[in-house]
Amino acid sequence: MTSTDECARSQGSGYIEEGAISAIRDILARIQKEDGRLSAQQDWVDEMCPPDPVVFQYENKSQRMVLEVARARKASEAMSVASRALSQLAELVSVQAAASEKSVLALQLRTGFSILPDDILAVVLEDAAYSDVMDSISMFFSDNVSTAALRTVEAAKKLSHTCQRFRHIITRLPELWNRINHWMPHEMATTCFKRLGSAVARVDIDVAMRGHSLILKFIDVAKQYSALWRKFYYYDSSWPHVNGEEAYHLFEEIGERTFKLEAHSLTYLEVKYPRSMDVHRLRDVPHFYSTWSMPNLSEMYVGGIIPVPFADATSLKNLHLVLRRGDDDSSELGRYDPLALSSFFDSCVALEELDIEVDCTAYDDEPQLFTSRPRNPISLGRVEKASFTFSDCTKKNVEPVMDNILLPVVSFMSLSVNGSSSDSVPGPKFLDVDDIIPSILSDSLRFPKLSKFQLLANLFNNEKPLRINIPFGALSNIKHLTLATNKCILSPIPEWIQLPPLKSIYLAGCYLEEGWVASFLGRLKAQGNFQPSGLDTYECFWIPPSVTVIAESGLEQSDTGVALDEEEPNYRTSSVEVKRIVNEHHRSPEPGCFACSVDVIYHKPLQGFKRAIYAEKNLYERLAFLLRTISYAKERESFLLVQNLRPPANAAIRSHGQRQASHRTLEPSSKSVSTIGARSTSGESAEDFAQTYGQTNIEEETFPILAGILHRLQDSHGDLSAQKKWFDEMCPAAEPAIFEYQAEPTQAVDDILQVTAARDALKIASRALVQLVKCISIQATVAEKYVTTLHRRRGFSSLPDEIFAVVLENATYNPESAAATIKAATTLSQTCRRFRRIMIDIPSLWNRIDDSIPPNIVSACCDRLTADIEVTLKVYSSDSEPHVVAKFINAAKQHSSRWKSFEYSFSGGSDASEVARGCAEELARETYALDASSLTLLYITYYSNPPRSIDGDHLRDATHFYSTWSMPRISGMYARGIIPIPFPGSASLKNLYLDLPRCVGGRFDLKALTSFLASCPTLEVFRMSLCSMEIDESTLLVEPVVIGCVKEAAFEFEYCSRRVARLVMAALRLPKVSNMTLNVGYFCLYGDSELEVDLEDLLLSIFSDESRFPELTELYLKIGSYSVSYMGSLLGDLEREESPLCLPFNILPKVEFLFLNIGSTIPSSIPRGKCLPSLRILQMVNCVRLGPEWLPSLLERLEVQGNLQELTVTNCSYVAPPTTSALDPGQSDTTGDGGEREPRSRFVKYTEDDLRQLTKVRSIKVL
């Protein structure tokens, strides 16, 4: 119940005075009698209480006077009662009217959601609550998994509290509860298990940043529900990894607690052992999962160890094994035993897919991963798919793996070789791929069934490209070849090697030579097995003849030394270009010429590629059911195409012997050639077709359906178009579903019933009529999907526009990227007319533009908006050019009168001055005298040095491009890296923030600062952050600038000298400032070479002049609080020589609120002298070096003055007198060499009891 509703109901429970109702009724009767004229009531008042003054004269008719007085009193009392009653009613009705308005809105919203069926509402709620892994930004993947699961559960719990229906639906969605990890509170994990019911869960354990006791407690909770486990993950994502000895004991504890665990639903097991475990400890590590009962285990991932055989390994079908070096491995110490690997492989009798990774990445010599060579290899007779990845490996770590196994039936193999051969990169200086690959593919008999082979080579050499040999001699039986050599050059193939009978070739990232391509494809064509359509390329490049390459033998080839990367963009090629080269080398009219087959090249993705590829998430995944309804029209077109197609009249092969094109032309027929007696072309008999549907007889209701079909066909003389006409009548062909709001959904229900009847009839008929199976089965399938389409259309069509607009906005809006938002909105707006109408009217989708958006899109967004626009221009030295900036500004400035905010930022290194200068000049040229009449906020940010050149005036105009703009409404400005110059709009500025970091270079120009501030007479809020150790001496002789309207100011001095801070503050006069923050960083205190100027002198120079801040009442003083970690180390360094800080209270006469955050030493007491300021509120935070008597003496003096009302002390401590073991009972009084320990001071924190004892007067509130 809302507060308005509560107020309405509470006021409605009062009483109206007796006689008020009759009085009000009389009033209404009089007004109604006079046709609603209010003057009727006034006439009655004039009659009862005449306006003439009472004349006090003697009269004998006293009785008449008594009657007149009584009548007037009665009228007066009646009006008083009526007035009070009407006031009560007026107030009550007003509140009830407001409450009823909210009730109407609530009912409208409830109606939209209430008419959604449970299945559609379940999809909406699941999408709202579910958090995917990539929705959580984190350094480690495991953190993303844990965070996403926690966010999902929290969102589901919050939504389930909305109403009973939401709770009923959400608690039955297993996708919201089936990701459970030990980061969850134990109560949450238990709740998730209980809400799963019969569903299965994913269980995650991450050792990173959590105590082992918490992990073990989670294990105790989760094992009670082990029957619900579907996937189990154990990994260590901490960096550096946990201690190896601790990990070993944790494995022991987990093994004891999960001994003989029953996990009958577990299908996936992943265990990653930490690198920190030493070799000898690793060989004896407990395999806690080996005692579990996992009869359905089909997939296993193990990293850092060789598993031991266990009972349920016989059901494994997919194994991913990662063998890597440890943190402390040496080159002569083996980590893995090949015999153990053979023993485990021997237990995997059902293995079908094998993936092995060997990672020898090191920063010195390659480690010896294996203790010895295997003896007898194990035959894995059911493995059909194998993948091998070797990183920075040589032959000594490849052979123990490959010699350990035999793969007699493997048909697909992926081989990845990764490494670096650059002298500038640490690690093994050269990887001999020509030595590694032959050890894997020794001959064609090793893998006799191999038909598909992928070679993925990532061999990086920063100086020159590498050559790589393809072992075609050992691949004599393959039919499909994929080469992804990542900018490596393919070596020539000797003429004596017989090429395999390839049917398809896919080249990705290869450096190709025209001679190699012509020779290779020419030889394949000569063999007669390869078809031209089987060739495809992706991101391949031609090699110019002058490029220097390096072969795997280490010898350079060619002598020009041209860097390949310099010419790379000019040599990009495609499948069409490759085939053109072949045709130029083989010009002949022979059949099968490559030029005849090139029509359309499809760049399909490389399957099994090990590189991580992240694509943009498809927007329609959130509205998947919407896409299915849209695709219905395409399926109907496919059905109609089948009905109207026939083979060509002459299907014979042409006389010149060329192969008939795969895109054979199909001519439409004037009449259908399919009749009742047509033979089925599907290759199935009637009995086989019936058996597929689980029955051998025809149902009883089939016969009337068949009678109707046959009757229609008979009347049309066997023409199938009669059945098509009946189908079109029952399921009318329609355009893609338009989700218009339907106030009467009964029509959708009638359509569903009609199409459902048609679908059932078509299903029964399709099981009985084998001759018509192609026609009827397609109609049944389309009818089924059409029914589903109508179901979904009814749900979405019933959503009102205002609710649907919220759904579309949430589906498309990206707060981090305006380009992504516009792209998503544009894509969805093309769905249908209603989508487009609604999305165009959502201003938040179009009012943000930046330079990453194409200019035509910028213009389109501005044209369809009537609201103000936010403009962002970000220039990066690495990928930005001046002409790109000019194009964006040209498109955006057409609507400059509607700019609400403008942000310009430049990022670049020390060599980015040319880019910065060019972009600034283009911006200044394109926006000269710009009309920005609606602009209120201006952001200018230089993250590196602003542009500089010899032509100072010209460059100043370019850097301060905004100075020519017309901005009459500008009220806020943020500038980083530059000091603005006066411009016409600065007179209206109310909020200014100047951030002048160290990267601005040069000396600080105080005169430029005062000049700009003088042009801001209406400034109310001023903030400045300064990091500069030097100041321009020519700017010192400046008059102090008076900023008369500033009421709030903040100054931060970091990495700058006290002299600079003092000069800056001396140049400013803030007569009306009442709230000021002064932050003097630690490096400003102790990084100054002028030792004679101490901090107390700095504070005196700032506050001693009473005319500088005469109205100051609130002061936030932060001194020496720059780095928390540095201050933490400072607490232990008590012997540091440091002059104590005496706070100048006597120069702050009007301050009533004081905030102190001081990391410097404060003396033991406050000296006697002038009265302290009339403080009413004192807050102290992180004052860690107070003198022992400072706070008591301060409170004593403030207590005498009697003004202090509130005291807050947070994390403050004072220096206790030097002692020895009395302060630390666990510390010895002697040093390690037997000598006595020097007495040391310690810090003692103030407690609440200490503060209450210090504040003896109860009027002071202690927080």
TrEMBL record:
Compositionally biased tracts (Basic and acidic residues): 1234-1243
Record SUPFAM superfamilies: L domain-like, RNI-like
Location of the region described as Disordered in the Swiss-Prot/TrEMBL record: 656-677, 1218-1243
Compositionally biased tracts (Polar residues): 667-677, 1218-1231
Protein name: Uncharacterized protein
Source species of the chain: Schizopora paradoxa
Alphabetized InterPro entries for the sequence: LRR_dom_sf
Domain of life of the native organism: Eukaryota
